[in-house]
Amino acid sequence: MTDQASKTKLWGGRFTGATDPVMHRFNESLSYDKRMWAQDIRGSQAYARALIGCGILTEKEAEEIVAGLDRVGNEWREGTFKIEADDEDIHTANERRLKELIGPVAGKLHTGRSRNDQVATDMRMWLLDEIDALEKLLSVLIETMAKRAEVEIDHIFPGYTHLQRAQPIRWAHFLLSHAAYLATDLDRLRALRPRVSVLPLGAGPLAGNPFAGLDREALAKALGFDSVGPNSMHSVSDRDFVIETLMWTSLLGTHLSKLAEDLIIYSSSEFGFVQLSDAYSTGSSIMPQKKNPDSLELLRGKSGRLFGNLAGFMMSVKGIPSTYNKDLQEDKEPLFDSVDTTTACLQIATGVVSTMSINGERMRAALTPDMLATDLADYLVRKGIPFRETHHISGSAVKLSEERGCQLSDLSLEDLRSLNPAFEEDVMRVWDPSESVERRNAIGGTSRRAVLEQVTRLHALVNAGVHSA
Ligand code: ARG
């Protein structure tokens, strides 16, 4: 940095030496925090107006600053903002430009304020907008799954445990099992919002704002915050809102990775229950027959990146001393990346789920009578025999069919009666998978009614959001 340049640094007063250019690059955050330019402008405009209340600015001066900031904002919007070599972050860049545009009165704006309370304010404002956008995207995905479940409610296919065929379920029930995870994600996102919506501005560098008449409640209202930070030291250092968001994206990422994995398996030739649309698949550069589920593999893979952002930033904040330390600048890149990644993941997941097709025949063909062995045991339970006994009897039936090399449902009434006399003619209804799913009619089950009830609940959940689509 030249001597002249050292004078232009906003904190340059006591510094005479030059900054190592590598240090400048190491220290700067403008290259990525410039995406908060609009929040920085809005925050400064509100702060300028608040300074009227403490007699620091006249109405006229505040209006000059507000209008000047509008011009700075327009430059960002139009892509004409010229970044100078010494600009360190979005806060110093905007203030430097304001001074160039309106002169020395710009120098009054930062009275009582610090970049410490300013950066936390900008980030919270930025994140609140993103949370609203994420809430909409997540709501659309949940709605897409709920609608699909409703339309495809008649399809029955195997439900798995340990990836082994277990019991017949409705395809809709499977879809809604994933939607149920996403519903809790929606709940969590809504619960997180008020904790993000806490105003740091007015905390100063750490000890609070010294100018009488600064109305932080009014400032919060003007900027759309729900509440005011209760402790200035906490306000400038608290990044729990970032961590909680990273946790949220990590958990959502985990849920999407599980959905992706199921659909990858179900789209393989071995299963063939679903087929991805061309829009979300890719071909192989060498094997012409292949249709790869890259969209789903990426969804599955991104979960690692999301958790990595959380783990990395948690390490950065661990054990730092009170209030602001530059370690905290490490909050932005993981936050931006995780929000961007999650935004993309939600859009892709919605695209895949809304455009894939299902193969009802393959689903039906995968249902085998042995999956109804529990239903056979339950049949005898209804005749008054304890389940531990009926489980054993049904097991003997499975063994008998294996010995005979036939399906469980091929055993005759006599065969079954040889195992227990309580079997009667109506036992043959056990072999109907539709009856099996319909019997599971308690709340949360796979019967038609129980599934449609889940659909209704999901619609209600989505519609309950103030910020939802
Ligand atoms: N660029 C900084 C950040 O992102 C702004 C706060 C700087 N504060 C300071 N005291 N150096 O965290």
Automatic annotation (TrEMBL):
Q: In which pathway does it act?
A: Amino-acid biosynthesis; L-arginine biosynthesis; L-arginine from L-ornithine and carbamoyl phosphate: step 3/3
Name the GO terms of the biological process aspect: L-arginine biosynthetic process via ornithine
EC numbers: 4.3.2.1
Record domain Fumarate lyase N-terminal: where? 13-308
Sorted alphabetically, which SUPFAM superfamilies does this protein's record hold? L-aspartase-like
Q: Give coiled-coil spans as residue ranges.
A: none
Task: Tell me which Pfam families the record gives.
Answer: ASL_C2 (PF14698), Lyase_1 (PF00206)
What is catalysed by this protein?
2-(N(omega)-L-arginino)succinate = fumarate + L-arginine
Sorted alphabetically, the keyword list is: Lyase
One GO cellular component assignment for this chain's record is:
cytosol
The main enzyme category here is: lyase
Q: Which NCBIfam families match?
A: argH (TIGR00838)
The record's family statement is: Belongs to the lyase 1 family. Argininosuccinate lyase subfamily.
By what name is this protein known?
A: Argininosuccinate lyase
- From which lineage does this chain's organism come? Eukaryota, Fungi, Dikarya, Basidiomycota, Ustilaginomycotina
